[in-house]
Amino acid sequence: MESWRCFVAVPLGDALRATLAGAVEPWRLEPVGPDLRWTDADSWHVTLNFLGPMQPTAIPGLIADLHEAVATQAPFTVATGGLGTFPGSGRARSVWYGLTDADGRLATLAAAVGAPNPLQAHVTLARVRMRYGTRLTEWLDGRAVPPGTIEVGHIELLRSHLGEGPARYEVLASVPLGGAGSVDD
What we know:
The protein is α+β, with helices and mostly antiparallel strands. The protein has one domain (4-184): Alpha-Beta Complex (Cyclic Phosphodiesterase, Chain: A), CATH 3.90.1140.10. The protein has helices at 14-28, 59-70, 105-112, 137-140; strands at 4-11, 36-38, 45-54, 76-86, 94-100, 122-128, 148-152, 154-161, 168-176, 183-184. Strand 8 (154-161) and strand 9 (168-176) form a beta hairpin. The model has no long low-confidence stretch (mean pLDDT 90).
């Protein structure tokens, strides 16, 4: 049986996605700059927990577990803004849009859904094509992205489809915080 590559994430929201896409679009079109593979704006999300390969038969039980995990989590808002790179601008492998988790609620949510490591909340905007990364310090200087907010009212269980072109994400379930009803695909 084919395994599914799954993860748990928070969606951005349409307004922030559109505003951020408008800021990033000119960079995608630059004729000179670092060799970056830009992620598709429609796929932008905040990963809480990468689950890896899973058997499709395990998905219903996982959805039930996610409902239980977030039943006591109240909806909240997270501030966004700023650019950065992983691991650093000297040998960057990716460019990200940042989130501020001042009260730790996003980290608490990530832990509730089983994230094994401390959360470094971000939205991946681009990946460096060079195997060992590249220097992005000068490229980042003077670039700005709009600040915004993400309304965290639900989480999504997503399946990633890899292959030709950019990854495509399929929403397997939408699980509301606070134990309210759900929308499962």
